[in-house]
Task: structure prediction
Amino acid sequence: MKRALIILAVLVAAAALYVGAFLTVNHQVSAEVADLERKPAAELSEAGDALDILIWNVGYGGLGAGSDFVSDGGEHLFPPSRRAVRENVAGIEAFLATQNDADVVIMQETAGAGPVNYWVDVRGRAEHVLRDRDNTFFSDFKTRLLPWPLHLEHGQALYARVAVQGADVVALPAEDSGFLGVRRRYASPLVRLAGEKNWTIASVHLAAFDEDAAVRTRQLRELMAWAQAEYESGRRVVIGGDWNFQLAETNFPNTTDARFLFWLFPFPQDALPPGWRIAADASIPSVRTNYQAYVPGENYVTTIDGFIVSPNVAVESVHGFDLGFAHTDHQPVRVRVRAIEEAAE
Result:
């Protein structure tokens, strides 16, 4: 009996130590350059005067047209089935294959194999179709000390087919809350491209469900303060991704109850430094509500995915892709930008 009690006490102590260590490491929210995962590519050409950039939040492979999501007012935390996820990922991969001429592809919620996508490796499939590119990845959600098959990891990725001079990360304010004891690390990973035009290309994925948009507003202002300093250092800056702010006024038909739009806030225009511009496509929605599976004309849709460019960058075109939200709850957007020379003061 005494031996059994000793063994039980040891197991309880070990479990307590594990839980304590798990909570400690997963509450760390500061982002550093060391957190970036780089896979450099050899013999890429330098960036020129113009760039084509594609952005897409791929929803970890689990948010295709047949999904709803509990945080948006839906009923489910997991996708409908593994088959649905595999179909989503196949569609994501097929679309990316059509965009291989884009100089930089930026993706959010690029997830490895884990429980929320029934162990279908979205990130791996994206890296396969975008192979031979410079690859930079930052995990903004990662369960440290949790072994496979329970391990979760997803984040933001930048794939460049032009030479990358270096990569960096801009740490952003975090939310106080977490999921299962894991806090998300908010940051914008970026690449500085080689070439005379000094391009800096950054990904963005701001908070989505913070009360009154308080956290995402702080994140935006800190990001734009960094961007202004980057621009003043002689760089041409393009930031693209999921802003979780409405970038353009839209009025697409829908029957969504207003209570499911609690997350929606207009972009605060006063956060833009002088001369900076938003590039977004108001004619094709980039996001849908997830309180139910997607039904055209019922789900509210709008534009929250797009780009912000510095004053020394011209936007030649920007357009979204209407994929019917088949593969994820966001739709891709592509921009063509060109370097311009500013008049001397």
In short: The first strand starts at residue 37 and ends at 39. Residues 14-27 have pLDDT under 50 and may be disordered. The two ends are 86 Å apart (CA to CA). The CA atoms of residues 41 and 248 lie 36 Å apart.
